[in-house]
Design brief:
Blueprint: H1 2-16, H2 19-33, E1 35-36, H3 41-46, E2 49-50, H4 53-68, H5 75-94, H6 102-112, H7 121-144, H8 150-161, H9 168-177, H10 184-191, H11 198-225
Antiparallel strand pairs: 1-2
Helix pairs in contact: 2-4, 2-11, 4-5, 5-7, 7-8, 7-11
Length: 234
């Protein structure tokens, strides 16, 4: 009963926070939980970091909530994120102790030769990383100029981070969906919490960016080590 009450209080607390605030909190937890692991000579030379899987997936869910604020334009990307989260969770559920961190999952698939398969967890991790790349690029554009055109900011972020890996059908669908993007003021307002000013939102975004950059650097290093960083849509 006590545990259930604590979980309810934690849920209530998160509901009161903005999506950006919750993302900052989750990334802070992930940063504390990371540890350096070395099991092979290659990993020793690349300083591989153990990334706990559950906090990482919790953060990805918060990314979905942020992207939801953009509206239907993000529907395809949102669905992709959800499916990749589920794939990694299913792997974790098969052996929570063994697959408690992302590196072990990628290492196991590399050993089995299944990393490049269409439904591999390595691909799931890759596409979650690309979704975070997109989110980072968009937030960096917003924090640089909070009044810039949202459609342009989203298109430029997409072209930089995801379009090179998408097939032409997905790219065409995204182009059409861009017409449904909200204006800048509307997007900032829905990101803001009660009584939050645009300056406060900007400060929160800056904090999130500072935490997201090192995480993405680590993720890209891991993906490159296991030779899955350049895979395109199957």
């Amino acid at each position: 009963m006590k545990r259930k009450r604590c979980e309810m209080e934690e849920t209530t607390k998160k509901k009161k926070m903005t999506e950006i605030g919750s993302a900052i909190e989750e990334l802070s937890v992930l940063s504390i939980a990371k540890t350096t692991i070395v099991t092979t000579e290659t990993e020793a030379t690349t300083n591989i970091i153990n990334l706990p899987l559950k906090p990482l997936l919790s953060f990805c869910r918060l990314i979905v909530q942020v992207l939801d604020k953009i509206g239907p334009t993000m529907a395809v990307l949102r669905q992709d994120i959800d499916q990749n989260i589920q794939r990694l969770e299913k792997m974790w559920e098969s052996d929570p102790l063994l697959y408690s961190n992302l590196v072990e999952i990628l290492r196991q698939e590399a050993k089995e030769g299944s990393s490049r398969k269409p439904k591999s967890c390595s691909r799931a991790a890759l596409w979650l990383t690309r979704a975070m790349d997109f989110t980072l690029a968009l937030l960096q554009r917003l924090v640089k100029d909070m009044s810039q055109n949202m459609e342009q900011a989203i298109e430029e972020s997409y072209n930089l981070t995801i379009k090179p890996w998408h097939g032409w059908i997905s790219s065409a669908a995204f182009k059409v969906a861009l017409k449904l993007v909200p204006n800048n003021s509307t997007f900032i307002n829905v990101l803001a919490g009660k009584d939050e000013t645009h300056q406060m939102v900007q400060d929160d975004i800056t904090s999130l960016i500072s935490l997201l950059i090192p995480l993405l650097n680590q993720l890209h290093s891991i993906l490159e080590l296991y030779e899955v960083s350049k895979l395109k849509s199957p």
